Amino acid sequence: xxxxxxxxxxxxxxxxxxxxxxxxxxxxxxxxxxxxxxxxxxxxxxxxxxxxxxxxxxxxxxxxxxxxxxxxxxxxxxxxxxxxxxxxxxxxxxxxxxxxxxxxxxxxxxxxxxxxxxxxxxxxxxxxxxxxxxxxxxxxxxxxxxxxxxxxxxxxxxxxxxxxxxxxxxxxxxxxxxxxxxxxxxxxxxxxxxxxxxxxxxxxxxxxxxxxxxxxxxxxxxxxxxxxxxxxxxxxxxxxxxxxxxxxxxxxxxxxxxxxxxxxxxxxxxxxxxxxxxxxxxxxxxxxxxxxxxxxxxxxxxxxxxxxxxxxxxxxxxxxxxxxxxxxxxxxxxxx
Length: 336
Known about the structure:
Layout: H1 2-30, H2 34-46, H3 49-60, H4 64-88, H5 94-97, H6 102-122, E1 127-128, E2 131-132, H7 133-153, H8 168-171, H9 183-215, H10 219-231, H11 233-244, H12 248-272, H13 286-305, H14 312-335
Antiparallel strand pairs: 1-2
Helix pairs in contact: 1-2, 1-9, 1-11, 2-12, 3-4, 3-9, 3-12, 4-10, 4-11, 4-12, 4-13, 4-14, 6-7, 6-12, 6-13, 7-12, 9-10, 11-12, 13-14
């Protein structure tokens, strides 16, 4: 029964993510926000709602390892997602066509992940207003970084549409119809889909904890791999739908935006967790995940910064390394 609940919750997240991405595309096209901000802030935050409910629910059932593993594992899986799509659409060189504003988002994600890694290693016991000092600093840096990104993005061109060179054999029918709806309807549908994802995320958390206990795989592996991959399904679907709509900026923005929003979840979990700073009370194996996310984030930034390369293989190299890094880390966590 628990596996059925887990599977149904995963299906709900997928269906809701399709609606989120479709309506985010509408909002990006019909408002002044543009694809970069809509993808990074709205879609990135909404597709991270399963991580919010899963992590907080995991703390409530006294399993902080699933909470932290889910957050860091989701970030690692998100980068794996964008790498897979980048390799699949290698002829179109997605990361080179993207708005350079994504580089700032990736940089903020790198800073936040590095701060988390340091906190996991040092395990400080300082608490401010019931919240670990490390989680509080991460939240402050997140808020400051998002403000800076929003100001910088105002002066950047929003190249939302893919170029005419986008490979029709890979993407499918070149006459993919974009959703046509009003801004009001798009906002309402977007919010309803977000609520559906929140409910599904809670069910994923409860059923995932039961699966961890039944299988004996351990909370760290369940959180960092199974739960992370499942709660990241919205991001995977959102990227796929956005690329079908030929909107690179929303696709990449949803991944990078989700990653930095996931780091803010630390603040929420730390508030709920009452046994001290949450990052000081979890397994050391999370350090491996955090270190991997840090390295993979650097590879994404390299891909965004690079000038045009001569061969397809050299273009794919960072994404191939990201995929390899994800698989190796998952194996190491599984082996314990």
